[in-house]
Amino acid sequence: MSHRTFSKEELAAYLHLSVDSIAEMARQGEIPHAMRGERLVFQQHEIDVWASRRIIGMSGQGLRDYHGKSSRQMHTPDKKGALIPSLILPGFIFPSLASKTKASALKNLVLLADQTGRVASADDLRASLEERERMGSTSLPGGLAIPHPAHHEPYLFVDSFVLVARTAHPIPYGSPLGEMTDLLFLMCCCDDQLHLHLLARLCMMCHHTTLLLQLRETRDPEVMLHALLAAEEEVLAAAAKNATPPAK
Fold first, then answer.
1. Counting beta carbons within 10 angstroms of the beta carbon of residue 5, is it exposed (0 to 12), middle (13 to 18) or buried (19 or more)?
2. Hey, is 119 helix, strand or coil?
3. What is the Cα–Cα distance from 115 to 185, expressed in whole angstroms?
């Protein structure tokens, strides 16, 4: 577990928020914090859980704004800012996951993740996923869930990646609206800021494109991968358009 401590200025940069917003949220008790004398401090392991919950709960303009800020500040090897091509490979998509419960889905996802060669400790990954779900479900409206570790330990993964799975039949996963879940995105990130940015990117792809419909129309991994790549391109194009100032 990371024991890094942020000042409010460092946290503002980390979360792509203003210092005033951080201070106000702390004053209102909306964000985990502590006082060292007269100075606000924030523990990274608490902030990461809080931030992932916050992003999962975002929609509409709030999500667009957060994603736009994180996109501008996140440096990626791809000049356009694409994440999916390097994180989701053809062998990372499983269109018929044989799971009937949330527990079995997590177990099977860990087994599949371990087969990628990018997981350093499958047992620790499963334990961290289960811990994160006890803190609150990673399910979202629309029948999807984005499970991810509770804490970002540097030894968990050899490299960052995402698994995409569709269950053979919808399963109960703890959706806030009581919906059944059939689409799962297992996020495994080595970098904390990549984790938050990727979470926002996936939420944008799922909420602001027709990706979920396309993933449910086929069980062909190649077609599903194409849909994922196209959805990210759509999100990036929209973000670039919104970031471009109007012509005078």
1. middle
2. strand
3. 16
Continuous segment of H or E residues that includes residue 113: helix 102-114
Find the helix or strand (DSSP H, E) in which 71 lies: helix 60-73
CA-to-CA dists, residue 75 to 69, 123, 197, 209, 239, angstroms:
12, 31, 11, 24, 15
- How far is Cα 232 from Cα 227, in angstroms, rounded to an integer? 9
Kindly tell me the number of DSSP H helices and DSSP E strands found in the chain: 10, 8
N residues, the chain: 248
Q: Which residues contact 89 (CB under 8 A, 6 or more apart)?
A: 161
Q: Which residue in the block uniquely carries the two structure tokens 């399963």?
A: 171
Q: Which pLDDT tens digits describe the chain residue by residue (248 residues)?
A: 456 788 988 888 888 788 888 888 888 888 888 888 888 888 887 888 888 888 888 778 888 888 888 887 777 766 788 999 999 998 999 999 999 999 999 999 999 999 999 999 999 999 999 999 998 899 999 999 999 998 777 788 999 999 999 999 999 999 888 899 999 999 999 887 788 899 999 999 999 999 999 999 999 999 999 999 999 999 999 888 876 444 33
Q: Are 65 and 58 in contact (CB under 8 A)?
A: no
From first CA to last CA, the distance across the chain in angstroms is 50
203: left (phi > 0), else alpha (psi -120 to 50), else beta? alpha
Residue 183 CA to residue 99 CA, distance in Å, equals 12
